[in-house]
Amino acid sequence: MMKKKGEIDLGLGLPRASAVNRSTAWPSSRRPRHHPRRETTDGHDKVPFPKDRKIPYGEISQFSKRSKQMPREGSEKVVYMGKVGVKLAVGCAVAACVVASVMVGRRVRRKRAWRRVVRVLEEFEEGCATPVGRLRQVVDAMAVEMHAGLVSEGGSKLKMLLTFVHNLPSGSEKGTYYALDLGGTNFRILRVQLGGQRSAIIGHDVDRQPIPLHLMTGTSEELFDFIASSLKEFVEREESVSEHSKSERRELGFTFSFPVKQTSSSSGILIKWTKGFVIEDMVGRDVSECLQQAISRNGLDMQVNALINDTVGTLALGHYHDEDTVVAVIIGTGTNACYLERADAIIKCQGLLTTPGDMVVNMEWGNFWSSHLPRTSYDIDLDADSPNPNDQGFEKMISGMYLGDIVRRVILRMSEELGVFGPVSSKLHVPFILRTPLMAAMHEDDTPDLREVARILRDTLEFPDIPLNVRKLVVKVCDVVTRRAARLAAAGIIGILKKIGRDGSGGIARGKNEAASRSKMRRTVVAVEGGLYTNYTLFREYLNEAMSQILGEEIAPSVIIKVMEDGSGIGAALLAASHSTSSVDTIQIPYM
Ligand code: BGC
């Protein structure tokens, strides 16, 4: 039978069924060799011992009795040897009984343990279930929370942050701009050349570097000095091979992918860290100012003229290529979304903005919460052990930073309680040791004997010899975790579409206009960036499948997901370019 996607036959058989079956038969090598019948003098085997006969345990003593009654001819030696033979036979029979019962006991225990393992998995799967009905509840909850977050500061767990980006790049941007993209495990420096005509990005160069771990928890000065000196090296390298006139002002768009309360399109205050960064002295400070000071300290002449979230950069690039792009989503180390909102819907700053029209709103959806989200005990433990408990609940179910660790926790539970993995490896206790790319590699292992799964379990978690059906179990755990994440992300996206009336349901206040709105569904493009979506095929397939299920066949074709490679960085350069010519709107909002 063909396996469906994500369908894995776990069976209820024992890990080593063949070994166990053997135990119920009496192996020929263990048959008593000194049975009396071999000692008879008439040359006949009076009591034939069928070669392949399995002797029921009750028959063993009868067989011995019968042997004693056999006529004996010849010397006492024969009688004596007969007695010895009988004793030996009885001894062997007893030993065989003991071995058999030990093996049967082991078999029963293994079978029970395996059933418990399967039960743990079933419970986990039930806890993670995302039927379409539940996803629709998440859609509604997302739309309602968005509204609440736009009405008042703190009105929702969704911060719905203003970005002061009113105009997305028009295509007329021209010149060379730099961008710095900081937000995940790597940071990127880009130099983008814009030709002045739509879709005319002449070229861009990128330098990617991992952020040294100690800088993620050090001081703001250390982090920004490291970034600024890398930026300086990059600029010098680039400009040594391309012309740069001394009079040209270098301008930079800074993508800073953490929750920031913007005070203008080029400045803002860090609200909190996410994704494992903990640099206390930075919270509450102006991010652009910190970078600008570090740039000056490093002797570089460059102006930070756009401060954006990565979602906003992705939206900017998406919109640059296709004007129907109104939503952008990041699904990578962290997760978040932004979209273009009508100014009059942003109730919390009515009358305070000087520029009319739409504005991009950074939702910070990683912090979304709803009682409809399927949460398991593993999620609760992961949250409790994280540096930001009760925070970023949606992100902890969806993003690349966490998925591998949820899988690790489920494997640990199975391993500890049920012993199917053998002795518990100490590595399994190490948080985040099973990174999401490794988890994806196990999930997508298509070798018949799941060789890649075995390799990762051996090399990363130090489980030397995991039988195939346990490997299948691990793949199933990965599948459950990824499927839930992808489907919840899909529900989140459709929640945004619902808020802006592009899901075909007539928006939050659905009703009699529903049919009409279905008929005039506009083409809507959602720009997506982030390794989880772009590099993980099964994640992508699950997300796309859920989008179609929720939207329905009629509406789904009008919603298009487009991947924007390097969108967050190139978008920052585009916004730096558009802000260098347009007027800038500012507002004073007291810091919460
Ligand atoms: C941050 C967001 C960011 C997202 C994706 C989240 O942890 O709070 O600002 O957009 O990660 O990088």
Count the E strands: 13
Distance between the termini: 59 Å
Largest sheet: 6 strands, mixed
What global shape is seen?
elongated
CA-based gyration radius: 34 Å
Q: What proportion strand?
A: 5-15%
Number of helices: 17
Q: Quickly give the structural class.
A: alpha/beta
Q: Which strand order does the major sheet show?
A: 1-11-10-9-12-13
* Average residue pLDDT: 83
Question: How is this structure best described in words?
Answer:
With 592 residues, this protein is α/β, with parallel strands linked by helices. The chain has helices spanning 17-24, 59-68, 76-127, 132-151, 220-241, 287-297, 310-321, 377-385, 393-398, 403-418, 436-443, 451-459, 468-499, 514-519, 531-535, 537-555, 567-581, and strands spanning 161-162, 174-182, 186-195, 201-210, 251-256, 260-264, 267-270, 303-308, 325-331, 335-341, 359-362, 524-529, 559-563. Helix 2 (59-68) runs antiparallel to helix 3, helix 3 packs parallel to helix 13 and helix 13 crosses helix 16. The protein is elongated, with a radius of gyration of 34 Å. The site of beta-D-glucopyranose (BGC) has 17 residues, from helix 7 and strand 10. Beta-D-glucopyranose (BGC) is lined by residues 183, 257-259, 274-275, 309-311, 330, 332, 334-336, 364, 366, 395.
